Amino acid sequence: MPEKKQKLPDKKPSSARAVRVRPVPAVSRSIAILRLLGRVGQPMGVKAISDELALVPSTCLHILRVLVAEELVTWDPATKRYALGNGMISLARSVLDRSGFPQLIQPALDRLAGRFGVTAMGVEVTAKGTVVVLALSHSNQPFRVHTDVGSRFDTLVSATGRLIAAHSGESWTDLRKKFSQISWDKAPRFDAWKKEVEQARLQGFSVDRDHFMAGLTVVAVPVFASSGRLAYTVVVVGLSSQLTSVATDLLAQEMMREAKEVSGLLVEGA
User: What is the pTM of this model?
Assistant: First the structure.
């Protein structure tokens, strides 16, 4: 007997409350500088940083000096340029060690990558709906997706985005607005995307074929926290020419099995 389709709620749960955060300019500017240095990937001078972020040079210099003192940024006196420091590594390691997810999911990623010849990732869904790669495994195939641990992707993009939308509780009106801001290689129609979001909620996995990036198929399955919140996803990326519909279904079933096991371990450790 066919399963009755469920509809996403048209309104956010009444318990949801928007938390008003008062801006702290110094903190926001410090974070902006760190993200800029990480995104550019090469040392930058004060003028280049201040111009890029529209900061007053003296303010930018003051913040950089504090970041240098905290070892989050380094300064080369010869070139007078700044780059991310080793202190960032310690912070990142603390996050990875605290969550436990990267260590739990890594063996599963290795198995998926080796068996199916794909790139497998464990990603965290942040409070803002973006996703951050926490663990990664490549196959021995010549094809590889260029991404790294720490890479961040926009909300609702690709297969994980469909899962975020499916479990967000947001209205379709709000989701349509966010959908219009997604950067696709080949954007799907909203009605088609909406149907795929509903399907992802029912079947327990989502697929993006050639939309996020032409020639690539992305499959994602959810990993829930003990509270029931969508906390992580397991994602694989492969060539669409190799991931046929049959192969994709087989892969998704294996991914769900791995994700269920990791979910259970996360609940036990909570």
Answer: 0.67
Buried b (16+ CB within 10 A) or exposed e, 221-252: bbbbeeeeebbbbbbbbbeeeebeeeebeebb
Whole-angstrom distance, CA of residue 70 vs CA of residue 64: 10
Domain spans of the chain, in order of start: 25-85, 92-269
The two counts, helices (H) then strands (E), for the chain are 9, 8
Given this model, what pLDDT does residue 19 score? 53
- Three-class SS state of 132: strand
Residue 19, classed as helix, strand or coil, is coil
Q: Which two tokens stand for residue 188?
A: 């799907």
Residue with tokens 């990664």: 136
Residue 110 burial (10 A CB sphere; 0-12, 13-18, 19+): middle
CB atoms within 10 A of CB 60: 23
3 state SS of 7: coil
User: Which fold would CATH assign to domain 25-85?
Assistant: Arc Repressor Mutant, subunit A (1.10.10)
Q: How many whole angstroms separate alpha carbon 223 and alpha carbon 234?
A: 7
pLDDT band at 164 (very low <50, low <70, confident <90, very high): very high
Topology, domain 92-269: Beta-Lactamase (3.30.450)
pLDDT of residue 216: 94
